[in-house]
Amino acid sequence: MQVKTIKSLFKSHKESTLFGRYIHGENIESLFEKFIGKFQISQVGKSVNGLPIHTITFGSGDKNILMWSQMHGNESTTTKAVFDMLNVFLEEKNEIKHVLKHCKICIIPMLNPDGAKLYTRLNANKVDLNRDAQELSQPESVVLHSVFEDFKPDFCFNLHGQRTIFSAGSVNKSATISFLAPAQDEDTTVTPTRKIAMEVIGVMNESLQEQIPDQVGVYDDSFNINCVGDSFQALNVPTLLFEAGHFAGDYNRERTREFIFQSLLVSLDYIASNNVDGDNYKSYFKIPQNEKLFFDIIIRNTKEQDIAVQYSERLIEGSIAFVPEIVKISDLSNFFAHRVIDANDYEVFKEDGSVLKVGSEIDFVMINNEKFSLKS
Length: 376
Prior knowledge:
Keywords: Carboxypeptidase, Hydrolase, Metalloprotease, Protease, Zinc. This protein is of the alpha/beta class. It contains nine helices and 17 strands.
């Protein structure tokens, strides 16, 4: 599928009611009505606090693809992209009819509605659902496992979001999108199952390189059987981790949303059109591994040491605020920043003239009697 075609589909099918970072159950449940009669919508369980968890299922093919988003409640970008994609399949455009013919797709658009409502990574019991794959101690984990058992997927798409700290390798390029074909054993063996996942990731990366060259990374594949991706991969189901990261100036993740949308369509098109056997997996290893080399802001060339600022995401009165916090004062010459402030060899102070300290939350700094905003 051509990038030009996919970009056009995004432009005409972007779900206008979903915007920004704070996406929760009430936002998506209001969208279900338009899918009735086209897709199968089922309530498959409830969260700790009794909020409903749904699946959306469509397509008539024999290749089963299971997706789930917002396992971590504050990772909402992929949820937006999922509903953009659903709008395309709702109209059964000619460009994607072969996907509906060859694939059956089941999506849990929001696995952790309690965490989404509170804008937290964890569920209401303060458990990371992505470390609960074996114990299944939480109702949301049981829901996912039950859907997996009932649907019997041939592919799993594990949809997440990542922080702004990641670079795509060791260069000054933010990891806007990251992938992983999780390990399925302690030796991180490149198994036939992983090769299939790697092949699909390689195709998505090739498409993304046309638009965001050198801004795609892969995660470290250390094995943890308690992680859902590793657990499903260990059951010999090809599992792909998607991570929505940072694009320059895009703290609402609206540009990243489009790249996730594109990646979903590219992967589905490839799976529908090919017998994916893992033979073409080697391009996966051309993708650089993520490194933690970015801060949101670095103030360089101060009278003393560099100053790193990171945004803390806070839910305040129904919207997400990005609160600047001083996280490091050191020589940061080996790090990058999404924004650089040049102090021109002057000292840097708080707005009231006091000294900056690690842990300080401040909106402005003073440099040579000039006020600089640290807000996003």
